[in-house]
Amino acid sequence: MVSGSLLVSHPVVTVSSLTFVVWDILITLDDEVNYIWSQGWRSPTKWLFLFTRYFSLGSQLVMSLRSMGGLGRFPQGSEGVCRGWFFFQLLTVQILISTVESILTLRVYALYRCIRPIRILLTSVFTVQLLIIAPAIAFMTPKIRFDTYCIPIPSTNALANLHLITAASLLMQLVLFVLTLVKSINTIREPKGRIPILVIIARDSLWVFCLVTVMLMVNGVFYTILSETVKAFVYTWILSGLSFSSCRLVLNLFRLNETAGETGIEDALTSHFARGTELQELSVINAGNPEVRSSVTKAVSRGSL
Questions:
Q1: What's the longest Cα–Cα distance across the chain?
Q2: Strands (E), the chain
Q3: 177 exposure class (CB count in 10 Å sphere: 0-12, 13-18, 19+)
Q4: 220-252 in b/e burial notation, b at 16+ Cβ within 10 A?
Q5: Position 280 confidence tier, pLDDT thresholds 50, 70, 90
Q6: Is residue 161 part of a domain?
Q7: What is the mean pLDDT of residues 120-141?
Q8: Looking at the 3D structure of the chain, how many domains does it have?
Q9: Which of 7, 25, 37, 254 is most buried per CB count within 10 Å?
């Protein structure tokens, strides 16, 4: 039985999370217009940014309407309807996680100058992740049982698959974080000194990794010991956190670009994907000058720029 306070608290949780996303959009709307809308139609970063931000907004709007009864009441005992809603929630968070991973992957691939071993490694890890998550979701969803309030009833098989999905997502996050950290530390140790773009990328990778890891661990590992209110809180704020993280990953580089008085940092980082170019050299130099000098040179195109 679900208490009255629990039923009241779910709208509070979903609406508060939705409010945060709207607030984040409003305070960064100027940056979005200046940095994102001006990007070319073939820029993957542009579409990853816009998709993550507004997919999260739309998803949370639907969930807020659902929690407040705006979509009507789910028929009690209708496992088909409950299962569809559960699948929607599961797929939503996985799509947002994949989007954040895609943005981080672009950074890592560019940092390593698009070399073949890194491409093989990232492709392999992503493939393994997909081969784990897709069957786990397909196997888990039909077997989930629900109570009269559409709340999933934990079972051994369902929890095992949930933990498997969590582990696969954490594996990809860990690989991307380690690759970024290794490259950043090795480059920063060079005589040229601290390199602004690598410091930004390393810093962002660290806090995104920590944020996503904590959220996934709480939701995936401690699922059985959380109350329904806490589960709802964790889930909706995972969506907000993923939206916030992915957008900051993109905007922070553009802001560095503007501060350094340089053009093309973001384009160079994503040119291989956006225009079919091969990144020849990534050189961002700060030799102790008061003014940071940064340049990204020689993106040799296989096609037209």
A1: 68
A2: 145-146, 152-153, 277-279, 299-301
A3: buried
A4: beebeeeebbbbbbbbbbbbbbbbbbbbbbbbb
A5: very low
A6: yes
A7: 90
A8: 1
A9: 254
Q: How far apart are the C-alpha atoms of 69 and 275, rounded to whole Å?
A: 46
Sign of CA pseudo-dihedral 92, 93, 98, 103: positive
How many CA atoms within 13 Å lie on the side-chain side of 305?
Answer: 12
CA atoms within 13 A on the CB side of 191: 0
Over the stretch 83-96, which tens digit does the pLDDT of each residue have? 888 888 889 989 99
Nearest to 11 by CA among 62, 68, 85: 68
Q: Contact 158/140 with Cβ under 8 angstroms?
A: yes
Is residue 298 assigned to a domain?
no
How long a stretch of residues is the chain? 305
Assigned domain for 194 exists? yes
Provide the 10 A C-beta neighbour count for residue 206. Answer: 14
Domain-embedded: residue 241? yes
Give Cα separations from 187 to 26, 96, 127, 215, 268 (angstroms).
36, 31, 29, 31, 18
Name every residue whose Cβ is closer than 8 Å to that of residue 204 and which is 6 or more positions away in sequence.
Answer: 248, 249, 252
Cα 156 to chain centroid distance, Å, stands at: 28
What sign has the CA pseudo-torsion 46, 107, 303, 124?
Answer: negative
- CATH number assigned to the domain comprising residue 160: 1.20.1070.10
Distance CA 292, CA 259 (A): 8
DSSP 8-state code for residue 152 = E
